[in-house]
Amino acid sequence: MTKNSSFFTSGMKLADLIHLDYKLLLLLPRFGLNLGFGDQTAEECCARVGVSSQLFIMICNIYAFENYSPRKEEIDQTEIDQLLAYLRHSHSYYLDDRIQRIQDQLKIMSANSDLAHQKILNRFFEEYKNEVINHFEYEEKTVFPYIQSIEVGKKATGYEIEIFEQNHSNIDDKLSDLKNIFIKYWPADSSQKERTAILFNIFSLEEDLRKHTFIEDKVLIPLVQKLEQNYGK
After folding, report:
1. In this predicted model, what pLDDT tens digit does every residue of 58-92 receive, in sequence order?
2. Mean pLDDT for the chain?
3. Do 13 and 60 touch, CB atoms closer than 8 A?
4. Can you give the pLDDT at residue 28?
5. Dihedral pair phi/psi, residue 201, rounded to 5°
6. Residue 104 backbone phi and psi in degrees, to 5
7. Inter-residue contact 222 to 75 (CB < 8 Å)
8. What is the pLDDT of residues 150-203, one digit of tens each?
9. Is 50 left (phi over 0), alpha (psi -120 to 50) or beta?
10. Under 8 Å between Cβ of 54 and 74
11. Do the Cβ atoms of 8 and 42 come closer than 8 Å?
C-alpha cells in the first residue's frame, strides 16, 4: 500500500500508519498515545486510552492527505468533548514544545549576530508568540466554554459561532515573514547549519498550524452550527 492509494481507516495497524506518514508521530501525544503499540490497530490503541478512533483517524487523514476533506457523516459523528480536548492539547503542544523550541534556537543563533539583528529578531518572534497566546486564550476562555454550554442546552446570549468564524485568523501567516528573514535577509556569515535547522522547524510548525486551522474551520464550526440550529438562535 502506498500513502496515496486510499485514506486511513481505524482497522489499520497504527504502526503501518506511522510508516506511511511519519509526521503522524506528532499527533500521538495529543491523543495520549505512546509508542510501543505492537501490531495493534488504530482502533485498539484508541480504545486503550479512551479516545474516539473515528476522531483520531479523521485527524490523521487531514494531516496526511491534502485532498482529504471530512464527509458530513464523519463530522456529525465527532464527539465535541473529545475534539475540544484534542484542540486544547494541541494548543499546549504548540506553545510549550514547538514554539518554545524555535525561540530557543533563535536565541542561540542570534547571540552570534550584532545587537541590532538580535533585537529585531527576538522582538519579532516575541510579538508572534504573544499573538498565538492571545489567539488560543480567546478560544479556550470564550469559544470553547460557549460550545460546552450549548452542548448541554445552555446557549449563551449575545454570542454564536459565526462571530468566531468571521474573526478566525490564520496564526501561521507571520511565520512566512520569519522564513523570508532567514532565507533572504539574514547575514550570510551566520551558521548555515543553525539557520537550516530553524527553517525546518518553522516550515513544520507552519504546516501543522494550517492543519489545525482547517480542523477548526471544517469540523468544529460545522458541528457547533448544527448544535445552534437544534437549540435555535
Report:
1. 999 999 999 999 999 999 999 999 999 999 999 99
2. 89
3. no
4. 97
5. -70, -35
6. -65, -40
7. yes
8. 888 776 667 889 888 887 777 777 888 888 888 887 766 667 888 889 999 999
9. left
10. yes
11. yes
* Residue 174 identity (one-letter amino acid): K
pLDDT for position 1: 42
109-118 confidence digits (pLDDT tens): 877 777 777 7
Q: What is the 3-state secondary structure (H, E, C) of the chain?
A: CCCCCCCCCCCCEHHHHHHHCHHHHHCHHHHCCCCCCCCCEHHHHHHHCCCCHHHHHHHHHHHHCCCCCCCHHHHHCCCHHHHHHHHHHHHHHHHHHHHHHHHHHHHHHHCCCCHHHHHHHHHHHHHHHHHHHHHHHHHHHHHHHHHHHHHCCCCCCCCCHHHHHHCCCCCCHHHHHHHHHHHHHCCCCCCHHHHHHHHHHHHHHHHHHHHHHHHHHHHHHHHHHHHHHHHCC
Which grid coordinates are listed for 179?
522564513
Beta-carbon contacts of residue 130 (< 8 Å; ≥ 6 apart) = none
**How far is residue 178's CA from residue 196's CA, in Å, rounded to a whole number?**
13
For residue 176, what are the CA distances in angstroms to 4, 22, 99? 28, 24, 15
